[in-house]
């Protein structure tokens, strides 16, 4: 069942490139995203005035990345809500709001209840779901299935990356339909998305590099993940992965926000994983790296191959292949998942069944 891997999580990390291709390729027509076979009409994308994404946990983090991608691309408001908050908030959604619900299992009770509430307020609901025939898939107005295959490990890995791929394709199709991307722009976008697949694969193959660095993490009580913009959205998932399977308290912070309080927690040898893959704000994140390093942090910097920065800016640097900024999440996700995985293994914990957690959360 584990195909020779010691844990389902590692197996599922390795399955990501294939899962991504299975999710993307059937929906490509002449290099452009096409949801005809999914029964999703373009008018759904043309008619809305805004987008509201609703999900829990890792799926919500995929939504955070999608928000940071879509809003600048579409130039309409794109909000993200935690499903368990949305349900009790008297949310401002209506018939002009495209609600995108994300769920691997399709059974998460808060996500389902939030979707029902949005539908009762007139919003069309498009569900991005992995499990065929699940309740959210059945009750949504439209469904875009991800093709991750069964995910057994409690810690979500391949479900996250295929959710991202589906959301990127939705963003691209919406941008086409709304005149924000012409055909050649949309083709280039999809080309960049496809380039991210071998880039992710390359980082999975470099797993020994990550395995070696976790010795600096496993005895730490706390760890911080920092980044700006999309990098901040990626860091949210890095922190969740690490805390749920290694039990190291980890937090994600927008790097520029550190000095408004959290930097007080940075002292000697506190691990800081800094994600700096966005060219236009690279220098800003690097200056935050300098700040935490000056306070003694042990810094692991994740940056693009071509990023120019002094070698001693960080204690460890992990370089990812050069991709267009919007697409770096795929190789970065692989690195963050591997950090959590090897930290859990290094602490001799139950990687696939962490304490207190269930794969599908069907109670409030
Ligand atoms: O099945 P769902 O995607 O709705 O599950 C939502 C969360 O419970 C889930 O993403 C959870 O956060 C991950 N398994 C954590 O790795």
Describe the secondary structure blueprint for this structure.
Blueprint: H1 8-14, H2 16-24, E1 28-29, E2 32-33, H3 42-47, E3 50-55, H4 57-74, E4 78-82, H5 83-86, E5 97-103, H6 109-120, E6 125-129, H7 135-139, E7 142-145, H8 158-177, H9 183-205, H10 207-213, E8 222-227, H11 230-246, E9 249-254, E10 271-276, H12 282-294, E11 298-304, E12 316-320, H13 329-346
Parallel strand pairs: 3-4, 3-5, 5-6, 6-7, 8-9, 8-10, 10-11, 11-12
Antiparallel strand pairs: 1-2
5-amino-5-deoxy-1-O-phosphono-D-mannitol binds at residues 56-59, 103-105, 108, 111, 154-156, 244, 360-361.
How does this structure look, described?
The protein has 364 residues and is α/β, with parallel strands linked by helices. It has helices spanning 8-14, 16-24, 42-47, 57-74, 83-86, 109-120, 135-139, 158-177, 183-205, 207-213, 230-246, 282-294, 329-346, and strands at 28-29, 32-33, 50-55, 78-82, 97-103, 125-129, 142-145, 222-227, 249-254, 271-276, 298-304, 316-320. The strands form three sheets. It has a five-stranded parallel sheet with strand order 4-3-5-6-7, sandwiched between helices. Strands 9-8-10-11-12 form a five-stranded parallel sheet, sandwiched between helices. It has a two-stranded antiparallel ribbon with strand order 1-2. α11 links the parallel β8 and β9. α9 runs parallel beside α13. The model has no long low-confidence stretch (mean pLDDT 96). It binds 5-amino-5-deoxy-1-O-phosphono-D-mannitol. Residues 56-59, 103-105, 108, 111, 154-156, 244, 360-361 line the site of 5-amino-5-deoxy-1-O-phosphono-D-mannitol.
């Amino acid at each position: 069942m584990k195909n020779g891997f010691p844990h389902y999580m590692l197996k599922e990390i390795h399955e990501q490139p294939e899962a991504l291709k299975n999710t993307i390729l059937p929906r490509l027509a002449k290099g452009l995203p096409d949801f005809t076979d999914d029964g999703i009409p373009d008018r759904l994308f043309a008619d809305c005035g805004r987008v509201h994404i609703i999900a829990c946990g890792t799926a919500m983090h995929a939504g955070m990345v999608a928000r940071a991608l879509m809003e600048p691309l579409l130039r309409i408001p794109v909000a993200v809500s935690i499903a368990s908050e949305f349900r009790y908030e008297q949310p401002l959604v209506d018939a002009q709001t495209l609600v995108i619900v994300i769920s691997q299992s399709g059974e998460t009770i808060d996500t389902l209840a939030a979707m029902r509430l949005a539908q009762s307020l007139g919003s069309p609901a498009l569900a991005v779901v992995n499990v065929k025939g699940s309740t959210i898939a059945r009750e949504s107005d439209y469904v875009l299935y991800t093709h991750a295959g069964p995910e057994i490990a409690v810690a979500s890995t391949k479900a996250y990356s295929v959710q991202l791929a589906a959301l990127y394709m939705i963003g691209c199709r919406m941008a086409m339909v709304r005149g924000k991307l012409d055909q050649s722009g949309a083709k280039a976008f999809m080309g960049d998305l496809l380039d991210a697949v071998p880039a992710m694969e390359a980082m999975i193959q470099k797993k020994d590099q990550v395995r070696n660095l976790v010795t600096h993490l496993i005895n730490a009580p706390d760890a911080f993940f920092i980044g700006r913009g999309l990098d901040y959205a990626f860091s949210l998932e890095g922190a969740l992965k690490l805390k749920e399977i290694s039990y190291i308290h980890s937090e994600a912070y927008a790097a520029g926000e550190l000095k408004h309080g959290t930097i007080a927690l940075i002292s000697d040898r506190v691990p800081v994983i800094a994600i700096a893959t966005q060219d236009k704000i690279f220098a800003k994140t690097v200056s935050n790296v300098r700040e935490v390093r000056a306070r003694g942090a042990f810094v692991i910097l994740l940056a693009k191959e071509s990023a120019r920065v002094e070698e001693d800016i960080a204690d460890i640097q992990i370089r990812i292949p050069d991709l267009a900024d919007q697409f770096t999440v795929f190789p970065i996700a692989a690195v963050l998942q591997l950090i959590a995985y090897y930290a859990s293994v290094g602490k001799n914990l139950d990687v696939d069944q962490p304490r207190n957690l269930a794969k599908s959360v069907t109670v409030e």
